Amino acid sequence: MSSTASSNSHADVDCENITPYGEENRPKSQQVEAMFDNIAPAYDFMNRAMSFGLHRLWLRSCLKRIRRKSPEQPWLDVATGTADVAISLARLDPAAKITGIDLSEGMLMLGRRKVSEAGLSDRVELLKADCLSLPFADNSMGLVTVAYGVRNFQHLDKGLSEMARVLKPGGMLAIIELSTPTSPLVKPLYDIYTRHIIPFMGRMVSKDVRAYSYLPESIAAVPQGRDMTRLIESVGLTDADHHPMTFGTCTVYTAFKKS
Q1: Which of 259, 258, 254 is closest to 69 using CA atoms?
Q2: Global confidence as pTM
Q3: Is the pLDDT at 90 greater than 60, yes or no?
């Protein structure tokens, strides 16, 4: 159910300036690519551990919303990573053709292996590409998804504009993104967990000192709730809505392109 409560505003914080390694002379996109190449071997394990397995629940919630709308084919998964969403989309519709794109070849290598093991290589294709310059024609995709990726975009409005561009008229955008709870009971525990425990776990498992410190910083900086829906609608999409889950620690956003 959509939240009608006012969200915590992050619109005044520029998430584009929050970078994995804080290197002013290297674009955010290059730092994000390097970070995901570094953490690729530990990525799936850390997702399960950090979310206590709730990432599966969040994905199921998103898939239910997609199923209800039955978007036209083909489908595109942006920032596909190790292809969990792309594989789930293929299973959602046995006739679906899905393309997944990502900056990180390290993540894509793992994703291609998972796609092959799932027996979906004929329906799921993974490509190295930049979300700010999608290699697809205007009005060519019935559905565009992105899970845990928009806060990593070097230019958020440009990434959203590109996804809107490739959507067919009537097409659906579905975003899953981590968010900051606003409850005074939950937020202190959330802050301790994300700012101290997760970075410690990340350093132990992935050996990347900065990657899992960047995570809470980027979550705090990305527009959330109504700030995000307003940004989505500013690129020409309509009926943008947000659906907070698990005390507001994750949010599903949906929007549509005018027919």
Answers
A1: 254
A2: 0.92
A3: yes
